[in-house]
């Protein structure tokens, strides 16, 4: 995006993770758009000063970035955020990002490293209706092998070497074993595309079942799911951004997590992690998980 636009600044959202590249290792700060500070030793502030932070699902915070800088190359976003728990972006918000990018000559990047082939086989754009300029993928696209991939229109991709001046290469780029594994996984998934709907349905049943069980015991749970991704927060209010996610009841999460683990149900061990189900997760397992959560929420409520 920088090579294509000839600009230096990047807008990213607090709570979104985009790998350990220097410019993107900038995380929580205030919700207001400020120039980012590095969140890891070894990352020079000279790099992260080109990263502007905005608040997820808050278009005003993005507008402020464009007021603060006339050098914005791109907005990068997880359209279905999975690194602050599961927090999908509002459709309207993504459409507004698209507009802002077009008005200002910046590119819109969807980071679907996590959500790719999990939320949908056709990408977040098939769910949200907003089409990015650049798409990044990883994880599932490798079918278990280490791969990262990105794509864009022919015009943008033509900027890459050897066609264009933007250098990009790696020892393991296009690694044949990883490519074969990814191709096999995706071919299988494509042949059996209805499995995505089955997983979505199971995920929905799981979080709804747990939410009802929590509610019956006076505990408020916010839930969501997209395809095989699911998430929950112990929170009285809707979770729309990282600050909201941080406002969740971490102690209750820890208690629930550890009691579920004792009962044989292993959720991701951080309230900021998204849960995934796979084709190995059966209907019976979903019911068993809901039933265990019923017992445990009651136990938690009784002890209060
Ligand atoms: C995991 C993840 C990355 C980083 O991918 P790596 O292959 O570890 O570099 C980037 N973006 C998102 C959204 C991720 O979940």
Strands, helices and their partners?
Elements (H helix, E strand, L loop, with lengths): L1 H4 L3 E5 L31 H4 L2 E4 L4 H10 L3 E6 L2 E2 L5 E2 L2 H14 L2 E5 L13 H4 L5 E5 L9 E5 L1 H4 L18 H16 L3 H22 L5 E5 L2 E5 L8 H5 L3 H13 L12 E2 L6 H20 L2
Parallel strand pairs: 1-2, 1-3, 3-6, 6-7
Antiparallel strand pairs: 4-5, 7-8, 9-10, 10-11
Helix pairs in contact: 3-4, 8-11, 10-11
Task: Tell me what the structure shows.
The protein has 2 domains: 2-190, Type I PLP-dependent aspartate aminotransferase-like (Major domain) (Aspartate Aminotransferase, domain 2), CATH 3.40.640.10; 194-303, Aspartate Aminotransferase, domain 1 (Alpha-Beta Complex). The strands form 3 sheets. The chain has a 6-stranded mixed β-sheet. Strands 9-10-11 form a 3-stranded antiparallel β-sheet, with helices on one face. The protein has a two-stranded antiparallel ribbon with strand order 4-5. With 304 residues, it is an alpha/beta fold. Residues 28-34 have low confidence and may be disordered. The protein has helices at 2-5, 45-48, 59-68, 91-104, 125-128, 154-157, 176-191, 195-216, 242-246, 250-262, 283-302; strands at residues 9-13, 51-54, 72-77, 80-81, 87-88, 107-111, 134-138, 148-152, 222-226, 229-233, 275-276. The chain binds pyridoxal-5'-phosphate. Pyridoxal-5'-phosphate binds next to loops.
């Amino acid at each position: 995006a920088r090579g294509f636009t000839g600009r230096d600044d990047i807008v990213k959202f607090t709570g979104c993770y985009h790998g350990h590249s220097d410019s993107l290792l900038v995380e929580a700060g205030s919700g207001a758009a400020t120039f980012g500070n590095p969140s890891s030793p070894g990352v020079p502030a000279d790099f992260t000063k080109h990263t502007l932070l905005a608040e997820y699902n808050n278009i005003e915070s993005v507008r402020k970035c464009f007021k603060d800088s006339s050098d914005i190359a791109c907005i990068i976003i997880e359209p279905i955020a999975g690194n602050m728990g599961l927090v999908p972006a509002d459709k309207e918000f993504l459409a507004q990002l698209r507009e802002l990018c077009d008005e200002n000559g910046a590119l819109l990047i969807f980071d679907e490293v996590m959500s790719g082939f999990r939320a949908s086989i056709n990408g977040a754009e098939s769910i949200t209706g907003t089409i990015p300029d650049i798409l990044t993928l990883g994880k599932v696209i490798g079918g278990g092998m280490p791969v990262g991939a990105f794509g864009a229109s022919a015009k943008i991709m033509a900027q890459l070497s050897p066609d264009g001046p933007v250098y990009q290469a790696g020892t393991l780029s296009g690694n044949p074993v990883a490519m074969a594994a990814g191709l096999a996984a995706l071919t299988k998934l494509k042949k059996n595309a209805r499995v995505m709907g089955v997983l979505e349905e199971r995920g929905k049943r799981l979080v709804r079942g747990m939410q009802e069980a929590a509610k019956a015991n006076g505990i408020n749970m916010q839930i969501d799911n997209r395809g095989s991704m699911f998430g929950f927060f112990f929170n009285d209010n809707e979770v729309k951004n990282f600050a909201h996610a941080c406002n969740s009841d971490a102690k209750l999460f820890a208690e629930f997590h550890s009691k579920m683990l004792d009962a044989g149900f292993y959720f991701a061990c951080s309230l900021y992690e998204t849960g995934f189900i796979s084709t190995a997760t059966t209907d019976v397992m979903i019911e068993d998980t809901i039933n265990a959560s019923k017992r445990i929420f009651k136990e938690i409520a009784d002890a209060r």
